[in-house]
């Protein structure tokens, strides 16, 4: 119970000495000691003034941190290794006091945001830029407001619960080569969608829900008006040229696992750029193929969250495995790290995948 | 005005104010203070660039060395006060720092130096000017610290806009009232445990004529007109007497007159009656709290007859000699409490005082060789009177009726003689009247002596005290009555005590300032346990709406029952414990500690490596200048990132490698300096 009380108190406010503050406090004690011992009344005046500075510092720093409304906006679509900019919108609800020189420190992130001034009743925006070396979902729980205003003697911190999350996608810029579709090896795929033209995209197949990134010219307006949600047309070519990426997540987390995720991400990005439909299946999840940047976002989101586990169930693609691109760090029957080679052909067998995890390591099947 | 310029000007202002505070005390040395003041004023308007600033440092260094040598010389060879030469060094350092370029990171040094100067001034019993300087210093310091903090934050985060408005600064200055209020509260309420502070520095004693061991007839008069300097400030704690402006402030008595000079006999036997005689005078007492200026004579002035004299100042020890004169042993400006009898013996009682103990006859009936006319005059004035009181009154009345008071001094040595005064001139100042009366009384065998002191004073409404000035110096007579002791007689006719100085147009201002100074001395410099308990008592009376019975007398210090030194020790231990508890207990993991040390080493080597710089950016910075530390630093940073964000725990071997790489980085940084400012801008 003591621990709980203590952590509640610490969460409410934390005060730390700065170097200057420590020196000031020691000096105050020294002056006090000298005043008591010598009886010099002027030293009592100085002592009182120093205590006054400490009290004023405490009060002003408290005023600075109070009555602040903070909203956080996290970026969408940031890959590992890229600068991640988190924006904070701070509103000062105080009627007379400005808020000056505060840091907004996200729990676990090294680089805080600094806001120099928010006037009374005013708002301001400020951003922090951090780098994430690894993909993943980073939960954001608490924002710490920190200030050493007004005198720089003490740093006062206050925790503001601000739950959220930051999704860091895996890198998708690994050099990979998309496999050619069955029966069409070597055939180049167009990187551009030619929406709406019969022939280039095959026959009209049906309607489906609109996803971000779909060509707006494919929207079926009448159905959209009736259903109240956007609905788009789907064509055969969209369906037949799908790339299904099968990521085998059986294995230990580590560099090899991350490489496999990056390969999968790169394949998805390639498919997107080629204008092909693509989807992804892992040992624990499945995303049906679709086309467009929205699909890429969903795939990357999934890849950001995927976990590797040696006891995960075996990969079971919902469609014909011949249409899958397997990415596995274990190799077909146990294999090397990253890229691997699988025997091709045969029913139930998995096709070749051309994927590179390093410039020096290229194998063909 | 930019934040940098504003900040620098505020700090220089603090320096000027603390110099002013020091100037108000006894340790003031005009030359160094004037030079320092001029340098600081220059620093308000002129700020050298970085190159010139560096060159100026070469100029300051030899002067600093000279001052250090001087300090050592004062301490070890002369054994003199060390604070003054140290203050000169402080002033030099303050001026040197104030005259550096604006971007010099010397805030902490400047704050410390101005504070040290203010602290030094506390040792020298400064005047009321310190109060004004202290208040100004606190206001300036409040604003300066805020501006300094915001300035450094702006620089670190490259914020160019000046977001400090005039209104904001005014508000901050207003908030310094909180600091001043706290200062006052601590000052008034913090228990005083010692008996007072004996300040440093020699206080210049005022020279005063008329109280040395030998006084020439007429020497007193030369000071009467000339000097309006206040020598005594007298408060009456039990209420001001009605005749306050005509009180005689007794100083010293003289028993031997050689016709020209009064002197004090060396081997004077006791010439005072026992204290119980004063009970016959009456039961009324008058308490005086006397604050004397430092004089060059060790005399305690008070109303006669003085029963007790007590001082809280440990440097003042009241004594009295065989003549019954009260003196003190010690130095400085004596402040003491005197208790005197307020009543005078009734004339009828004095007429009956004919026999009993009398002091040594030969001392108090001694006469020089005088003209027989003096004796005849005395006989004629006292013929037919059968008691000493009537005789003394007759002589006293003779001077009042037949003579006139004048401050004009005799024009020649002939006119300066007592006979000329008695028989030719018939006018003079107080010394002549008192000398003449003593001579006449002794001529008829009555024990009498001359007394020098002060008469009257001027009431200071602001300070609520009687100010007695040098030009109120006075002489009168004491006559011995067995059973009653020495009784005062003042033969000088009306006209004494008027001084030209009091009519000067400067006087009201000086008088008011003196009142301020007196309150400052009493309530600040000399504030002690008694003052505190008196204050508490008055406060409690105020709150209770009356004057309840109190078992604590004003002179009785409050008893806490706790040794204050142990209390201080407990407070210090608790503060230290609180500090340790409040310290960030999150504590850094070892890898983070190593990374933070790397970052700090880079910062010290001149690289931009503050909290806002990400680890990989730090590596970029090292790589961009091709620094040899970049490779070991890369290992440290990557290990840190793997541990901190990659979720991988380093084993002991990896941590050891991290430490050795960090050591390599530090070695390389020490050998090779960081990028220059020019290079940094290019980065």
Question: Can you give a write-up of this model?
Answer:
The complex is a heterodimer of chains A (about 375) and B (about 675). With about 375 residues, chain A is α+β, with helices and mostly antiparallel strands. Chain A is about 25% helix and about 30% strand. Chain A has helices at about 1-10, 20-40, 40-65, 220-225, 235-240, 255-275, 295-305; strands at about 15, 70-75, 80, 85-90, 100-105, 115-120, 125-130, 135-145, 155-170, 205-210, 230-235, 245, 280, 285-290, 325. In chain A, the strands form 4 sheets. In chain A, strands 1, 3, 5, 6, 8 and 9 form a 6-stranded mixed sheet that branches. In chain A, strand 13 and strand 14 (about 285-290) form a beta hairpin. In chain A, helix 6 (about 255-275) runs antiparallel to helix 7. Chain A is elongated and about 100 Å long. Chain A starts with a helix and ends in a 38-residue tail after the last strand. Chain B is α+β, with helices and mostly antiparallel strands and about 675 residues long. In chain B, about 50% of the residues lie in helices and about 15% in strands. Chain B is built from 22 helices and 19 strands. Chain B has a 6-stranded antiparallel sheet. A 5-stranded antiparallel sheet of chain B has the order 7-3-14-17-18. In chain B, strand 17 (about 475-480) and strand 18 form a beta hairpin. The two termini of chain B are about 30 Å apart. Mean pLDDT of chain B is about 85; it is low at about 545-560 and about 675-683. Chains A and B meet through strand 1, helix 2, helix 3, strand 6 and strand 7 of A and helix 5, helix 6, helix 7 and helix 17 of B.
């Amino acid at each position: 119970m003591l621990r709980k009380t203590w952590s509640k108190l610490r969460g409410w406010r934390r005060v730390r000495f700065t170097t200057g503050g420590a020196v000031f406090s020691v000096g105050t004690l020294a002056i006090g000691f000298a005043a008591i011992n010598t009886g010099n009344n002027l030293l009592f005046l100085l002592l009182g003034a120093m205590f006054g500075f400490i009290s004023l510092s405490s009060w002003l720093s408290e005023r600075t941190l109070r009555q602040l409304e903070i909203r956080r906006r996290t970026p969408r679509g940031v890959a590992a290794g890229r600068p991640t900019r988190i924006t904070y919108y701070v509103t000062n609800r105080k009627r007379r006091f400005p808020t000056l020189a505060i840091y907004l420190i996200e729990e676990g992130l090294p680089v805080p945001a600094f806001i120099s001034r928010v006037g009374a009743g005013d708002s301001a925006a400020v951003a922090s830029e951090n780098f994430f070396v690894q993909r993943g979902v980073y939960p954001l729980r608490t924002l710490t407001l920190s200030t050493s205003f007004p005198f720089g003697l003490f740093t006062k911190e206050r925790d503001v619960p601000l739950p959220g999350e930051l999704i860091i996608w895996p890198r998708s810029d690994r050099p990979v080569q998309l496999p050619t579709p069955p029966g069409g090896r070597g055939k180049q795929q167009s990187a551009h969608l030619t929406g709406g033209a019969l022939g280039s995209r095959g026959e009209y197949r049906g309607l489906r829900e609109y996803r971000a990134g779909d060509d707006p010219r494919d929207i079926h307006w009448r159905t959209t008006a009736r259903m109240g949600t956007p609905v788009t047309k789907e064509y055969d070519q969209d369906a037949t040229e799908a790339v299904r990426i099968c990521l085998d997540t059986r294995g230990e987390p580590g560099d090899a696992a991350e490489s496999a995720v990056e390969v999968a991400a790169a394949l998805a990005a390639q498919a997107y750029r080629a204008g092909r439909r693509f989807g992804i299946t892992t040992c624990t999840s499945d995303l049906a193929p679709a086309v467009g940047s929205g699909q890429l976002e969903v795939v990357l989101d999934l890849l950001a969250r995927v976990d590797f586990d040696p006891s995960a169930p075996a990969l079971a693609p919902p469609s014909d495995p011949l249409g899958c691109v397997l990415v596995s760090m274990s190799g077909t029957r146990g294999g090397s790290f990253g890229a691997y080679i699988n025997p091709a052909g045969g029913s139930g067998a998995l096709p070749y995948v051309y994927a590179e995890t390093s410039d020096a390591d290229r194998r063909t099947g | 005005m930019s934040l940098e310029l504003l900040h620098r000007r505020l700090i220089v202002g603090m320096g000027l104010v603390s110099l002013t505070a020091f100037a108000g005390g006894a340790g003031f040395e005009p030359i160094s203070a004037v030079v320092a003041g001029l340098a600081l004023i220059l620093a308000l308007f002129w700020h050298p660039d970085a190159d010139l600033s560096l060159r100026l440092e070469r100029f300051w260094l030899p002067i600093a060395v000279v001052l250090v040598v001087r300090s050592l010389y004062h301490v070890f060879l002369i054994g003199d006060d060390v604070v003054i030469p140290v203050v000169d060094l402080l002033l030099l350092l303050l001026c040197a720092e104030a005259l550096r370029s604006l971007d010099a990171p010397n805030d902490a040094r400047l704050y410390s130096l101005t504070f040290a100067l203010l602290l030094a001034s506390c040792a020298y019993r400064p005047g009321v000017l310190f109060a004004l300087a202290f208040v100004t210093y606190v206001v300036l310091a409040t604003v300066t610290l805020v501006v300094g903090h915001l300035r450094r934050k702006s620089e670190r985060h490259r914020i160019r806009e000046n977001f400090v408005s005039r209104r904001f600064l005014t508000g901050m200055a207003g908030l310094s009232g909180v600091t001043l209020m706290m200062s006052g509260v601590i000052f008034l309420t913090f228990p005083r445990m010692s008996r007072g502070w004996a300040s440093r520095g020699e206080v210049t004693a005022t020279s005063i004529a008329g109280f040395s061991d030998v006084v020439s007839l007429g020497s007193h008069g030369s000071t009467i007109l000339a000097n309006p300097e206040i020598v005594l400030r007298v408060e009456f704690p039990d209420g001001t007497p009605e005749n306050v402006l005509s009180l005689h402030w007794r100083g010293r008595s003289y028993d031997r007159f050689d016709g020209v000079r009064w002197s004090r006999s060396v081997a004077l036997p006791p010439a005072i009656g026992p204290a119980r005689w004063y009970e016959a005078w009456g039961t009324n007492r008058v308490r005086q709290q006397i604050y004397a200026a430092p004089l060059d004579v060790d005399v305690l002035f008070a109303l006669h007859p003085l029963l007790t004299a007590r001082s809280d100042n440990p440097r003042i020890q009241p004594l009295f000699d065989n003549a019954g004169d009260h003196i003190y042993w010690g130095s400085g400006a004596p402040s003491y409490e005197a208790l005197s009898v307020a009543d005078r013996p009734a004339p009828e009682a004095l007429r009956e005082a004919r026999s009993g103990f009398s002091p040594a006859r030969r001392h108090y009936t001694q006469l020089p060789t005088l003209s027989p006319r003096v004796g005849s005059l005395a006989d004629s004035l006292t013929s037919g009177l059968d008691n000493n009181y009537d005789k003394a009154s007759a002589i006293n009345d003779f001077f009042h009726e037949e003579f006139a008071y004048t401050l004009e001094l005799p024009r020649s040595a002939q006119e300066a003689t007592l006979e000329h005064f008695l028989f030719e001139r018939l006018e003079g100042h107080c010394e002549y009247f008192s000398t003449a009366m003593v001579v006449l009384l002794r001529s008829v065998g009555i024990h009498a002596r001359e007394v020098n002191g002060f008469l009257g004073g001027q009431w200071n409404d602001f300070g609520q005290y009687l100010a007695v000035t040098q030009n109120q110096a006075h002489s009168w007579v004491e006559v011995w009555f067995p059973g009653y002791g020495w009784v005062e007689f003042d033969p000088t006719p009306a006209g004494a005590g008027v001084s030209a100085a009091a009519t000067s147009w400067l006087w009201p201002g000086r008088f008011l300032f003196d009142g301020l100074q007196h309150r400052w001395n009493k309530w600040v410099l000399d504030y002690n346990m008694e003052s505190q308990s008196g204050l508490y008592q008055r406060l409690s009376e105020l709150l209770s709406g009356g004057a309840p019975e109190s078992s604590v007398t004003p002179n009785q210090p409050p008893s806490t029952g706790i040794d204050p030194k142990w209390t201080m020790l407990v407070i210090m231990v608790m503060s230290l414990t609180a500090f340790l508890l409040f310290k960030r207990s999150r504590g850094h993991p070892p890898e983070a500690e190593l990374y933070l040390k790397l970052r700090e080493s880079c910062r010290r080597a001149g690289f931009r490596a503050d909290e806002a710089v990400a680890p990989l950016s730090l590596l970029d910075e090292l790589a961009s200048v091709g620094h040899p530390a970049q490779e070991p630093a890369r290992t440290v940073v990557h290990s840190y990132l793997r541990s901190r964000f990659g979720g991988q725990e380093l084993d002991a071997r990896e941590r050891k490698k991290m430490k050795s790489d960090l050591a390599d980085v530090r070695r390389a940084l020490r050998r090779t300096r960081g990028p220059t400012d020019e290079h940094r801008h290019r980065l």
